[in-house]
Amino acid sequence: MKRSLRTIAAFGVAAALAVGASGCAADKQITIAFVMGAESDPFFQAMKVGAEAEAKAEGVKLIWQGDASHYDVATEVPIVDNVIAQKPDGLVLIPTDPDGLQASNDKAIAAGIAVANVDTHVTDLSKVITFITGDNGDGGAKAAKAIADKIGYAAGKTYQVVVGLTSATATTNVARLEGFKAAVAQDYPGIQIMDVAYSAANPQTAASNVNNWLTKYPNLVGIFAIDGTNASGAAAALQAKGLTKKIALVGYDAYPANVELIKSGVFTALIAQDPAAEARLAIKTLVDYIKNKKSPAQRDVVIANVTLDANTSAADLAKYTYVATN
Amino acid sequence: MTDSKQALSVRDRARSLVGNQTSLLIVVMIVLSVVFTAFSNGTFLSTGVFANILTDWGGYILLAVGQTLVVISGGIDLSVGSTVSLSSVVAGFFMVKILGLNSDLKGVDAWGVLALAALVAIATGLVVGAVNAVLINVLKIVPFIATLSTFGAAAGLAIIVSGGMPMQGPSDFSLINPVRIPGIDPAVFDTGLFSPMVLVMIIVTAIVGLFLHKARFGLYTYAIGSNAFAARAAGINVKVHTSKIYLVSGALSGIAGFYAYIRLGSGSPSSGMGMELYAIAATVIGGASLMGGVGRMWGTALGTLILFTVQSGLLMTGVATDWKQIIVAILIAAAVAVQTLQKKNGAR
C-alpha cells in the first residue's frame, strides 16, 4: 500500500516535471553525480552546500558521494565505479590523483555520462566538458605577498619560512606551492623556503610539524599553511608556544574557526576559495550541456581566490566563510 | 640463556621485569638518537626536540596502550583513530552547542568545563567500545570486521556531529606546553620536557600497565590471548573479559580524543585520521604479537616513542618525511623477526 502510494506520488511528480519541462528535449529528471575527495574536509562540506542549492534550483537529482575521511585514490576509484553503475546523466568528479582517476573518468565518458572536473583534474582533460577550479597558483602568490607584507619585507635581507602541505601529489597543494615559490622568486628573493612537510590530512600531525620547525629554525618568520588542515594545526602550535603575531601565519581555506582567528591575530591572512561557487557552476554547466548539448564557451574556468585579513569587511568574511552542514 | 633455568640471578630478574624486547628497544632508541644528532649538526639533541616528541607521543600512546590489551587478548581494534575524531568532536559539540560556550573562555577559567568535556570524550569512547564488544561477543563478528565497521561509523558520525569543520571552543594551550622547573633559566638549561597533558598520559599508561602486569585483569588477558579455550576451561568468562578490554580501549581512545581537543583548541573531525595504524605499529614494534598472548606495556611505550623519534628526527635532519613510512616498515619487520628468533630460543 505504502509502496503503491509512493509510486503514484512519484508519477505525479514526474508528470508535473514533464509538464514543467515541456519543450525541453529530456522529459526524465536529470541526475548529476558528484564524487568528491573526503567528506570530513570542510572544503567539500562547503562545496556540498553549493551543489545542493544548485541541484535544487535546476530541479535535478544530486547523488553526493565520496569517502568519509580518506582523500585517497584507492577509496575513490571504487566509489566512481559504483556511481557509473547508477547511470547518472552527468558526473562532477574531484580526482584525488590526476593519473589514478583517469581510467574512471574515461569510463564514465565512454558510458555516455557528461563529466566535469572540479578543484583538481585528471591528466587528460580532452573529453571533459568543463574544468572549474580556484586559482591555486594565484592563491599561493597571494600568500607570499601576505607574508612579505607582515614581515615588512626589505630587499637585501633574508627571511626563513616553511610550508605545511597535506600530500606531495594533491594538485591543489602542488599548484599553491608553485605559485608561492614563483612569487617568492620573482618579488621576494630574500625569502628562503627552508622546508616542506606533510600532514596526511591530520591536524595533529600538522601541529607536530610546526612544533619541530620552531625548534629547528629559531629565526623562522613565516609559515604558509597550504590548506585548512595545516592552517588549524599551525594555528594551534603557534598559540601553544605563545608565538601568535610574532610569526606570520598565512593559511588557506575559510573554516569558521580559522576566520575567527584572523581577528585575534593568529592568522596574518587566510586565502579563501569559493568551493560552493565551483560546485554551482559545475552543475549548471553540466545541466546546460545535457539539456541543450551546448558546450561551455571556455572549458577551463578559474574562480579567483581572495585574501582575508584584518582589513577585510565583516560582510566579505561572512561571504567566504565555509558553512557547516550540521 | 642456558643457566637462566637453574636459578634467578639479579640479571634474570631485571630481564623478566622489563623483558628482552625492551632492552633492544632502548638500544634502537639510542642508536636512532645518535644518528639523528649526527646528521642534524647536533640540533636533534635538545630539550625542545624531545618535548616535541613527547607531545606527539602523548597523542598516540593511549591508543597504543589500548591496542596492546586488545592485541594481547588476540584481537585487534581498528576503530581507535575514528574514536579520537569522534570524541574530540563530541567534546567540542558539548561545550559549543550544548553549553553555548565559545573560544573566548581561555586558560584556567576553562578548566572546569574542560574537565566536563574530558568526561564527555571518555563516555563517547566507551560507547564505541561497547558497540565493539556487542558486535564481537554478541553478534560473533570477528574483531577485524567488527572494528572496521565502527571505524567507518565513528568517522562518519564525527563529520555529522561537527558539520565537517573543526569546532572551536574553550581552550587552554598551557596544558599542552612543557612545564619548566622554576628557578632554572631555560636559556642555560631547558627543563621543559613534559606538558601537564603528557604527564597525565604517562600516569594513565602506568595505571593500565599495572593492571596488565600486576593484576588479575592482565592475567586473564594473557590467558585468553594464549588459548581462549583453555582460559574458558579454567573458569575465565572470556566474553565478559574481552568486552572489558574493548571498553577500556574505547575509553582510552576517548581520552586521546580529549588530548587532541586540547592540543588543537578545537574538536576536529580529522584529528584521529590514520592514528589506528600508528597505534598498531607501535604495539607491534613494542613486541606484542598479533597472534595474541604476547606483549608488554614497556614495549608499547617505547615503540610509540620510537615512532615519533623517527618522525621528528627526519624533520630535524632534513630528510623528506616520505622516508618515515619506510623506516616504520623496517622497524615493524625487524620487531616481528626478533620475536620469531626469541621464540626459537625459547625465550619471550
TrEMBL record, chain A:
Subcellular location: Cell envelope
Pfam families: Peripla_BP_4 (PF13407)
Periplasmic binding protein domain sequence ranges: 32-294
SUPFAM superfamilies listed in its UniProt record: Periplasmic binding protein-like I
Membrane spanning stretches: none
Taxonomic placement: unclassified sequences, metagenomes, ecological metagenomes
Entry-linked PANTHER family: D-ALLOSE-BINDING PERIPLASMIC PROTEIN-RELATED
Broad class of where this protein is predominantly found: other
GO cellular component term of the entry, any: cell envelope
Name of the featured protein: Unannotated protein
Coiled coil: none
InterPro entries according to UniProt: Peripla_BP_I, SBP_2_dom
Gene3D superfamilies for this protein: 3.40.50.2300
Keyword flag Signal: yes
TrEMBL record, chain B:
GO-annotated molecular function: transmembrane transporter activity
Compartments where found: Cell membrane
Transmembrane segments: 21-45, 57-76, 83-101, 113-135, 142-165, 193-212, 245-262, 277-294, 301-320, 326-342
A Pfam family per the record: BPD_transp_2
Membrane topology recorded in Swiss-Prot or TrEMBL: Multi-pass membrane protein
Signal peptide region: none
UniProt keyword list: Cell membrane, Membrane, Transmembrane, Transmembrane helix
GO cellular component assignments: plasma membrane
InterPro entries: ABC_transp_permease
This protein's name: Unannotated protein
Organism listed in the record: freshwater metagenome
